[in-house]
């Protein structure tokens, strides 16, 4: 088993209004098979026994699908490995003696809560404004009554893989949520089920996104670089087209 | 304890129809007068909250994550079963029903399981209407695959992330109701107690996980959809925050707990690799469709897997179960892997792993096809282990995955406390002693979309509700005791961390109450658990403060519950002196080491009633009557 020791520089902040600061921690030898969050677990066990409060960080499934975890590692949301959430990042991506700077996702619309935890409920607010097909339970036609070309279904799934982690916002110089919004708009615009609400969906979701303080896309492409699910900025292009189409060609307000 | 399952009369296939007709209805205009609390926002909770909102009830939905899109249903990979028979391969509602009863080793209720199979088809229709992007054939129709324990292709899927796509569908429906003002969401709130007034569930006490503030909420009915208790083992495939607290508190308030000893150990997980490990990762069992499970023929063969010729390999599942081969149900596959490792044929550094090999499938179907089917699973495996399954066989080992036990419910999904309903993995109902693959998503959504919206109306329409608000004495009492318990945890300031205790409990449970169990081990566990619990309350170190985010405190509270609940699991496993499904008692096996049921003495649901601190819980039995299925040996050879 290979081991490495690391110097961690971690953002500590007691609460939303408190002043934060970086604090340094040296780890003992750690197995390179360990995951990044397990490294924080080990650190927290030490801190607890030494009388310092452990580092607060969001996490849940630890298999890269729930979207709960996330922090900026050496300047990059979710760390150095592409298409990988923080919980799936393993220490074999680092070298003995590395300094690792760990800080929360920062954005106007993501208020800090504590240490590495931020409030991403703005994402729910956007989805509430149209990120669904308005069908009640019951009475749906037979599932095979609506053939959908395989390619459309696959493209919709590519977009729908978004896990709502917020890395795209954290990576964007404008703290834009357009990759997140574009993914949901694309998922439903690509499918026949999404057509009846296609116009009002995109207009309402974009309006809410603006209202919540997310910035605009400037084609920096940082978002797709850090997206752990590989959602591409084609979805932003589609979002723009959908928005223009709805704004000019539909009767939606 | 009244264990009347309220199974409707009449032929099996007509029971649900008749029952819906017999249930009283709440007039649409009156629904807004009823408040319903839903705890949990995974598949069962989100689908229930959304649908109840659509019907016009006032719903409050609580979850411990920051958003209802994160419940652990999201991690389900393989798929969802439905008796559509789209593949024309002989499937039917009756076959899905029978497979589920048999797969559960005849320890589930026939009427509930038949209803589940009936509703399975409507679930797929509903999800497709919501825009869930299931896999499709070139012609545009839905694709299916076969899945562990089934000889027909009835599993619908969306790559390796079916749970995610289904949950996002239910989450969308829920968000729509939030937007319409019918559901109020309470994220980052943990239920600390159930409030029972005049014998009926009337509300809950919650702790805000950001401010530490305690709050009470009253309602006409409470729905628990809080998942399973696999994390009692510390290491499991569950999410880190998955817990037994909500259902255990309900049990302590009078809800009977059904079959707590029934736990599913999933055969295809990534093996344990270090003592710092925080969780185990499942590799979808769909991999067994193309992967072949094997170990070296001779114990101690340490050659690299690719260097071992076919003649020196034992494809033990194919050898022992020629009809089902690598697709035998989960419990059978898990137990066989353990048997091989116990015989010294385990592979990898620890010797606690078997190979899952794709070489033949790649030779047969080509690299492209196999990558398309399993690419994302292979990537996940490689991220965790650093090895590529396209070139070297995967290593897998069983891990705790799902708990069939849960709060006892009747046909209406109501617990023994009137007004307390329990859905999804949190109830005991449909999977008997072993759950078949791709059936958890089906059950969660059947409960949430289609059953509870009907049966809760029947309860509410009976009326007789006294006006109860959160200033009621019962609410105040629950609030005080919950607050005091949290303060007590913070006062201890001992020398061992919460995780340290949790790990100790988990290891004990895995050894004594895991994949195989015997009387001696179970009795040892019964001795040991109270000792760990006593030390916990004297020596645990919970840092930080009450009125702030305090993740150690959250964990401490959950582990304190596990330390009580674990004892109940062990008692249940001890009491059931037969082997069935995932519950394998070494004293009860056939000559070929297969599970040996004892239908004369154990064809019942074991329901445990909490009797107060320090007192042994009381065992009640709901007999299982099989009118449709003939009890037979569960044979997969």
Can you give me a brief rundown of this structure?
The complex is a heterodimer of chains A (253) and B (637). Chain A has 253 residues and is of the alpha+beta class. Chain A contains eight helices and nine strands.
Verbal overview:
- The complex is a heterodimer of chains A (253) and B (637).
- Chain A is α+β, with helices and mostly antiparallel strands.
- Chain A has two domains: 3-114, Beta-grasp domain (Ubiquitin-like (UB roll), Roll); 120-133 and 147-249, Orthogonal Bundle (Fumarate Reductase Iron-sulfur Protein, Chain B, domain 2).
- Chain A is built from eight helices and nine strands.
- Chain A has helices at 36-50, 121-128, 150-160, 167-171, 178-189, 198-211, 222-226, 234-249; strands spanning 3-4, 7-12, 21-26, 30-31, 72-73, 76-77, 99-103, 111-114, 117-119.
- In chain A, strand 8 and strand 9 form a beta hairpin.
- In chain A, helix 5 (178-189) crosses helix 8.
- The longest helix of chain A is centred in the C-terminal third of the chain and has 16 residues, at 234-249.
- Chain A is elongated.
- The model of chain A has no long low-confidence stretch (mean pLDDT 97).
- Chain B is α/β, with parallel strands linked by helices and 637 residues long.
- Among the domains of chain B are: 266-401, Succinate dehydrogenase/fumarate reductase flavoprotein, catalytic domain (Flavocytochrome C3, Chain A, domain 1, Alpha-Beta Complex); 480-597, Methane Monooxygenase Hydroxylase, Chain G, domain 1 (Up-down Bundle), CATH 1.20.58.100.
- Chain B has 15 helices and 21 strands.
- Chain B starts with 14 loop residues before the first helix and ends in a 14-residue tail after the last strand.
- The relative contact order of chain B is 0.16.
- Chains A and B meet through strand 4, helix 1, helix 2 and helix 3 of A and helix 2, helix 4, helix 5, helix 9 and helix 10 of B.
């Amino acid at each position: 088993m290979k081991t490495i020791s690391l110097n961690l520089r971690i953002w500590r902040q007691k609460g939303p209004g408190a002043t934060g600061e970086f604090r340094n921690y040296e780890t003992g030898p750690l197995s390179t098979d360990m995951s990044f969050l397990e490294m924080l677990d080990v650190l927290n066990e030490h801190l607890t026994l030494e009388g310092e409060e452990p580092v607060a960080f969001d996490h849940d499934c630890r298999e890269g699908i729930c979207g709960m975890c996330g922090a900026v590692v050496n300047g990059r949301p979710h760390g150095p490995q592409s298409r990988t959430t923080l919980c799936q990042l393993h220490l074999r991506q680092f070298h003995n003696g590395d300094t690792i700077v760990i800080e929360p996702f920062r954005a106007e619309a993501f208020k800090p809560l504590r240490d590495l935890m931020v409030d991403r409920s703005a994402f729910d607010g956007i989805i509430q404004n149209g990120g669904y097909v308005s069908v009640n339970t019951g009475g749906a036609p037979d599932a095979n009554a609506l053939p959908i070309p395989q390619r459309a279904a696959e493209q919709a799934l590519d977009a729908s893989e978004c896990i709502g982690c917020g890395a795209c916002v954290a990576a964007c110089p404008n703290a834009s949520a357009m990759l997140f919004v574009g993914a949901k708009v694309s998922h439903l615009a690509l499918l026949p089920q999404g057509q009846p609400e296609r116009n009002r969906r995109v207009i309402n979701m974009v309006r809410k996104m603006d209202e919540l303080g997310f910035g605009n896309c400037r084609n920096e492409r940082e978002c797709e670089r850090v997206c752990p699910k590989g959602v591409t900025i084609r979805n932003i292009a589609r979002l723009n087209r959908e928005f223009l189409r709805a704004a000019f060609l539909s009767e939606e307000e | 304890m009244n264990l009347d399952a309220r199974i409707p009369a009449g032929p099996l296939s007509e029971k649900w129809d008749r029952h819906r007709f017999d249930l009283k209805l709440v007039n649409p205009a009156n629904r807004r007068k009823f408040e319903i609390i839903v705890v949990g926002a995974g598949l069962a909770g989100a689908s229930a909250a959304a649908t109840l909102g659509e019907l016009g009830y006032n719903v409050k939905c609580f979850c411990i994550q920051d958003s209802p899109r994160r419940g652990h249903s999201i991690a389900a990979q393989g798929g969802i079963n439905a008796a559509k028979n789209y593949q024309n391969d002989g499937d039917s509602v009756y076959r899905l029903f029978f497979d589920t009863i048999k797969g559960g080793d005849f320890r589930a209720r026939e009427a509930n399981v038949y209803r589940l199979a009936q509703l399975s088809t409507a679930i797929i229709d509903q999800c497709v209407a919501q825009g869930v992007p299931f896999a499709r054939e070139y012609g545009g129709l839905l694709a299916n695959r076969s899945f562990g324990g089934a000889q027909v292709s009835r599993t619908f899927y969306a790559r390796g992330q079916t749970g995610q796509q289904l949950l996002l569908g239910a989450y969308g429906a829920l968000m729509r109701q939030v937007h319409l003002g019918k559901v109020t969401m309470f994220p980052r709130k943990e239920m600390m107690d159930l409030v029972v007034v005049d014998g009926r569930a009337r509300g809950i006490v919650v702790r805000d996980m950001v401010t530490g503030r305690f709050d009470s909420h009253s309602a006409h009915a409470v729905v628990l959809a809080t998942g399973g208790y696999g994390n009692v083992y510390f290491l499991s495939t569950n999410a880190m925050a998955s817990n037994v607290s909500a259902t255990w508190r309900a049990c302590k308030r009078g809800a009977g707990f059904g079959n707590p000893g029934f736990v599913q150990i999933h055969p295809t997980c990534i093996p344990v690799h270090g003592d710092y490990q925080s969780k185990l990762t499942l590799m979808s069992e769909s991999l067994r469709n193309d992967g072949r499970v094997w170990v070296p023929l001779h114990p101690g063969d340490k050659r690299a897997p690719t260097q071992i010729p076919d003649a020196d390999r034992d494809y033990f599942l194919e050898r022992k179960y020629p009809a089902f081969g690598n697709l035998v149900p989960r419990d059978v596959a898990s137990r066989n892997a353990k048997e091989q490792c116990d015989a010294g044929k385990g592979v990898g550094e620890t010797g606690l792993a078997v190979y899952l090999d794709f070489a033949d499938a790649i030779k047969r179907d080509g690299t492209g096809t196999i990558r398309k089917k399993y690419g994302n699973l292979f990537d996940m495996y490689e991220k965790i282990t650093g090895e590529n399954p396209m070139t070297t066989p995967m290593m897998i080992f069983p891990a705790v995955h799902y708990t069939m036990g849960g709060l006892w419910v009747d046909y209406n999904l109501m617990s023994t406390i009137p007004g307390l309903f329990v859905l999804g993995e949190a109830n005991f109902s449909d999977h008997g002693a072993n759950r078949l693959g791709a059936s958890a998503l089906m059950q969660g959504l059947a409960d949430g979309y289609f059953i509870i919206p009907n049966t809760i109306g029947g309860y509410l329409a009976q009326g007789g509700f006294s006006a109860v608000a959160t200033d009621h004495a019962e609410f105040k009492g629950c609030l005080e005791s919950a607050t005091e318990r949290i303060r007590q945890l913070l006062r201890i300031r001992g020398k061992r961390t919460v995780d340290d205790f949790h790990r100790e409990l988990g290891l004990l449970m895995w050894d004594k109450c895991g994949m195989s169990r015997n009387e001696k081990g179970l009795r040892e566990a019964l001795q040991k658990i109270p000792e760990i619990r006593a030390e916990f309350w004297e020596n645990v170190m919970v840092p930080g403060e009450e009125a702030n985010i305090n993740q150690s405190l959250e964990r401490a509270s959950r582990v304190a519950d596990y330390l009580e609940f674990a004892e109940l699991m062990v008692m249940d496993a001890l009491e059931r002196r037969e082997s069935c499904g995932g519950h394998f008692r070494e004293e009860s096996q056939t000559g070929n080491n297969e599970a040996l049921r004892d239908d004369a003495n154990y064809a019942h649901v074991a329901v445990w009633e909490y009797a107060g601190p320090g007192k042994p819980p009381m065992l009640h039995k709901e007999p299982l009557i099989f009118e449709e299925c003939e009890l037979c040996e569960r044979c997969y050879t």
